[in-house]
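TL;DR need structure tokens for one chain.
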Amino acid sequence: MKTEYDFFIIDKEHLKEKKTFPFQLYIFNPAHKKFSMFLNGNRPLTKEHNDFLDYILERGGKLAILKNQRKTFLTAQETNASEIPSLKERELHPLEKERLMNIKLKEMYEEKRGAFSLQTEFELACQTDNFEAIIENARMEILTFSVTMSPTVSLAVHLAKTHLEKDNFTNRIVAVSYLLAKNCNIVDQDALADIICGAYFAHIGLTQTPLTIARTPYLNLPEKERTLFQKHTILGHHLIKKSQIDISERCKKIILDHHERAAGGGYPSMKYGEQIEILSQIVGAVSHLFEYSSGKITGGKQSMKAILIAMKSKSYMQGLEFDFGEKVFQSIITLINTDKIETKEDHTELKKAA
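>> reply
TL;DR here they are.
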């Protein structure tokens, strides 16, 4: 969908009494703040067209040309860019200057280090228990997002700038969720911003429950406390809505649905299949992976490789889940190359966990 950044505004006088043009004419409607096609290229500007154009312009409408037809327009109309106010150089907003600088820094980094491989970096991070490289790569990419796209994208950039630096539990989930979404061919900045903000706020509802619940491994919680823990998705969703923070409805669904499971065994609404947004499944899968490896589910830490081997073979390990939708599941189990010959230690860990 074209936005205001795809056009430049001209005055009717710039048409210079010509009747046909090798470029398209668009009209900006100030009431709806949208651009719409007015006249296709090489179509005659009839008297009816001309009268209607005058009618639109008198009521605050504007005449516009696509920026990718800039050269065609200037040549055909024998006009210099300096004569078009909307084409004159404008001072860039400080945030846009910062974004352009971040794009250059990212390009320099990639030129020096080469292409980023999530599988390679994830395997190394698990071996060393250090996710700084993954977090930094995610941060570097997110800081190149356009802050003018939507409030959620702007918030995602702000969160990355102010919080996505240290290697901690939350930042691991945010960075890996973001990169796993890209591995699932989700590249739209709006969707990626939703998963960034959703991952940051997914467990905010736990702030509304007793501290002991968040600090106790899930499987060790008594039934009453476990039920209260499961309410954190509803509490988080309610808290976000009550705060009136300007984020997308899809982002709010991630907060509400990240514990829903594809076969209908999740909570809070026992949704299944396509009823669950794939971004919710990604945050749910990545959160579960780090919660399980850190002991937040069973009380005992597990190596990420042992967990992924168990997931790939769908071997029983108490509290381990597999039901994140086939696309997300396949992406998760390839985070580490488990096709290599498993060591004696891997088998020992799996037996202990089972």
